[in-house]
Specification:
- The chain is of the alpha+beta class.
- It has two domains: about 180 residues, Jelly Rolls; about 70 residues, Orthogonal Bundle (Arc Repressor Mutant, subunit A), CATH 1.10.10.
- About 45% of the residues lie in helices and about 20% in strands.
- It has a five-stranded antiparallel β-sheet. Strands 4-9-6-7 form a four-stranded antiparallel β-sheet, with helices on one face.
- A hairpin with a 5-residue loop joins strand 1 and strand 2.
- Helix 2 packs across helix 4.
- The longest helix has 23 residues.
- The radius of gyration is 19 Å and the shape is globular.
């Protein structure tokens, strides 16, 4: 697959055109020589994403947290998480596989399994992304599942859909259990505040990306995030800088270059 084949709606939502309603799981394989560095600009999608890196030089920017991925690393990107993908250098040869699936593949909406396992992971603020570096503890468990998934998808023997769903369920259960153990002491107030800030930041990023060629005022940014100008200037500017590594004005200048 090539970067130019990706489809994005006006609100930066990626349309996964291979996704079937009756079997919402697709595997994408990128094995390309890039002319530039950008693979996918800021976007989001309903589907969860499991990525296996097969060559060094791939970067994922997760709301300002730049993940420089190495061969063998595994990355989970949660539903509706804003991110962009690019190579470390122009002209880089990029190789990675992406397993994309919806929560409905694992369990029907509002079912016991969906409410107890799928939904908690999708709504967990600290699980916007989870990186399993090559060689770290338990990395091999997820890696083995992904390798089996790729083999099943290629052969498509009788029953491969059920085997694939079971393997994805195993991965999700491991990720949920891992994050639950890490965040037992996190307060609901902190989680709620961070979720609110993330939604505001997403609105600002999408607004700047949409109108970067125009003169954008503080009032425009505040309106995009549904907050007052004073709140935008006093508080949210700090959040933007923490997440993106620059001010909203600096980010706008970068986008206009």
């Amino acid at each position: 697959m090539r970067p130019e084949e990706l489809l994005f709606a006006e609100n930066k939502r990626e349309e996964i055109y291979e996704m079937r309603p009756d079997y919402p799981y697709a595997v994408r394989r990128f094995d390309v020589d890039l002319s530039g560095t950008m693979i996918a600009p800021w976007h989001w999608h309903e589907e969860m994403e499991l990525l296996l890196v097969k060559a060094d030089g791939l970067n994922y920017d997760m709301m300002g947290e730049c993940l420089m991925l190495k061969k063998g690393d595994v990355l989970f990107v949660n539903s509706n998480t804003l991110h962009q993908v690019y190579a470390s250098d122009a002209g880089k040869h990029i190789r990675y596989d992406v397993h994309m699936f919806r929560g409905s593949l694992i369990a029907d909406p509002d079912s016991l399994i969906e409410k107890n396992y799928v939904r908690p992971l999708q709504q967990m603020q600290t699980a916007k992304w989870i990186l399993l570096k090559n060689g770290e503890a338990d990395h091999w468990k997820v890696l083995k599942c992904l390798e089996q998934l790729s083999e099943l998808e290629q052969k498509r023997s009788y029953g491969y859909e059920l085997y694939s769903r079971n393997l994805l369920s195993e991965i999700l259960l491991y990720l949920l259990d891992r994050k639950r153990n890490e965040t037992k002491n996190e307060s609901r107030e902190t989680v709620g505040r961070e979720m609110e800030n993330e939604m505001r930041l997403r609105k600002m990023l999408l607004y700047i990306q949409e109108y970067y060629g125009e003169h954008l005022s503080l009032a425009d940014l505040a309106k995009a995030a549904n907050i007052g100008e004073r709140e935008c200037l006093r508080c949210f500017g700090k959040v933007f800088h923490r997440e993106m590594g620059c001010t909203p004005q600096e980010y706008r200048k970068q986008k206009s270059i």
